[in-house]
Amino acid sequence: MDYASAETSPQRFSPNVDQNLDENQDGTKGCTDLHPDKTNVEIDSQLLIPDELLRSINLNYIHSEKIVQNDGRNSDDKMDETNLFDSQFTIPVDTKIVKKFMDWISVDLLKGHAKRKGNVDHYKKGKSVIPVMHFGVETIEDKNWFYTMGFPDQSWTDSQINVCFYYFKKKSKYDPNRSYKFSTVDCNFMNIIRSVHGVYSVDDPNLTAGGQEVHLNEYINGIRMHVYVPWHTMEDIYIPVNIKKKHHWVLVVLSFSEKCIFLYESSESSGYYPAVLAEIEKLAEIILLCLQACDFYDKKGIDLQNHLRYKDKDSTDMFDVSFEENFPQKPSGSL
């Protein structure tokens, strides 16, 4: 497996506000439904999330320059010329929505809330309970869930990541004006990778050992998750990876056209690299075998004998790994 560093970052996010993604394809609203047994409960107005915020609970995505290949050649496939990490570029954020959200999660906070870490209550007694909210893959009725997303130095859980990636995927699938197509997986995907890798590498070289490879194949074939799409219809797959021992998340982008795993790391601390690489190597090893088992390349139309990124490599060669540069870094010592 080759490690490379690209000159530009291929996949870039912009928290641009979208006001129609919380509406399902059948026209129904999907974020504010209450359970039947909650409908008659009198709710403190301070606990209600502003309607404008509910309508904007999605992140838009800007796909800019395709990658710089390992030999220095640039792809010409571009959707947007904007460089998110250019100092002259201003991320389009609806500041009114952000302010309303921050105002809402700041109501009824405990005086020493910032010092309270982990799965604890940051609000005054009884004030963290909110009306049940449905976000496609999660049901939330605790204001602390939003606190974690709104305040710095908080450790996100699988729940927050799964909701964000659900809406990323929904945006990609249902936006008719988006030519760049990507999909996402949930946090359990890497749990299965770890499980399969443990059995495969220790006890049996057969990928079917342990029985969980079928779950990975379901992800690849697009039948495992909400808003499902088969991988062979996508350009890239976005994978959240939790480095649990470090309380740290990294973003992995699996690119089929480049046969490369792009790694977006918000901490350049040398102490993180061994743990991060250990996880990425598990992914690279197992995903290669799963793609072959699912006849992915035939479905994708990738000619392994003639494709620029595949023809000079053996079918058993793992995806290259590229650490993307110029990625925003978190402060030293923060979560």
From TrEMBL:
Keywords: Hydrolase, Protease
GO biological process, one term: proteolysis
Polar residues compositional bias, start-end: 1-19
Gene3D superfamilies registered for this protein in UniProt: Adenoviral Proteinase, Chain A
Signal peptide span: none
GO MF term set: cysteine-type peptidase activity
Residue ranges annotated for the Ubiquitin-like protease family profile domain, each copy included: 236-331
Annotated segments matching region Disordered: 1-36
SUPFAM superfamilies (UniProt xref): Cysteine proteinases
PANTHER family reported for this sequence: CYSTEINE PROTEINASES SUPERFAMILY PROTEIN-RELATED-RELATED, UBIQUITIN-LIKE PROTEASE FAMILY PROFILE DOMAIN-CONTAINING PROTEIN
UniProt similarity note: Belongs to the peptidase C48 family.
Name of this chain's protein: Ubiquitin-like protease family profile domain-containing protein
Record organism: Capsicum baccatum
